[in-house]
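Morning, I've got a small favour to ask if you have a moment. The fold is given in discrete form, as structure tokens running alongside the sequence. I'd be grateful if you could look everything over and explain what you see. No rush at all, and the record is pasted right below.
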Amino acid sequence: MKVLLVYAHPEPRSLTGSLRDVARETLQAEGHEVVVSDLYADGWKAEVDRADFPPLTPDARLKVPAASGEAFTAGALTADVVAEQEKLLWADALILLFPLWWFSMPAILKGWVDRVYAYGFGYGVGEHNDTRWGDRYGEGMLAGKRAMLVVTAGGWADHYSDRGINGPINDLLFPINHGILHYPGYDVLPPFVVYQADRVDEAGFEAVAEDLRERMRTLATTRPLPYRRQNGGDYLIPSMRLCDGLGAPGATGFALHLDGAERGRAADTAGD
């Protein structure tokens, strides 16, 4: 497999940085090709602004989706964005490695998404009609590829449990897993999360590292999270509401967008 690691931490000696090294070394030992985008080391520009869209005239109002689509269609996006898009098209699998800061990804990684997922590439793909609402949520430019998160969190695992004060970790990561990865087509694997990151000692790190090595060894075989596909018949078009009768009785929120029958099988086989 060809694997892209997108790494976002300002300190190379951080736990996140060490996990990046473990992931890269394990994947390479398994015979995979690996490319790393180190956003802080590369000085990645996080903010979207007029400079991202060279065809935009100085007197034109900046409407980001329109300007993004025009620049993408014209092949006029900036070189740094094009380079990352080419990596995504090259890779069979994408791994995002980052610390959980304020319940989300660091701003530099969000800025990578904002700029690289141009209109016509990450969104705005496919025809919209009465039976199909574009190529997204399981379809799109990156369909057929795999993706997963490697996340470090400062809190305890209990803090991120179903009854934990921070909210369930799968709910916190849903906007990334479902909204950023599944939206353009990725098959999204269960995340790898390390809790109490600032308290991991040498022995604890070796245990974490071995768990991550196993996840990297099974990157091609781990069953993805069973997100429903938008155009698979589970949603009404164009309202995009889940059809009546789907989902567990009484279920609400994010859980509705997981296929219940598949969810148990995914939980049973994660990491196989």
